[in-house]
Design brief:
Number of helices: 4
Order of helices and strands: HHHH
Radius of gyration: 17 Å
Number of strands: 0
Strand content: under 5%
Structural class: mainly alpha
């Protein structure tokens, strides 16, 4: 799903910014006790957690990436704001 969305955004000529929390790819993270998290939070934090790292690696492999600072500098330069 992400790849399709990224391709659509890039095809439209827009940059794509992706942010990920380290815990989102850490299948070995400590589990919070069931009673202290809402069901929706547990679902979002733990479902398919073991597959996230491979999905992240595929995104890194399939697209060209750069630090956001370089992207901003490039965008500012292309608009003539910064020389």
């Amino acid at each position: 799903v992400f790849k399709r969305g990224v391709r659509k955004i890039l095809k439209g000529g827009q940059p794509y910014v992706f942010y990920i929390h380290p815990w989102e790819i850490d299948a070995g993270q400590p589990r919070v006790e069931a009673g202290s998290l809402k069901r929706s939070h547990r679902f979002r934090h733990y479902v398919n957690l073991r597959r996230c790292e491979s999905r992240w690696a595929a995104l890194l492999r399939d697209f060209e990436w750069m630090p956001v600072g370089e992207l901003l500098a490039s965008e500012l330069k292309s608009t003539g704001i910064v020389h």
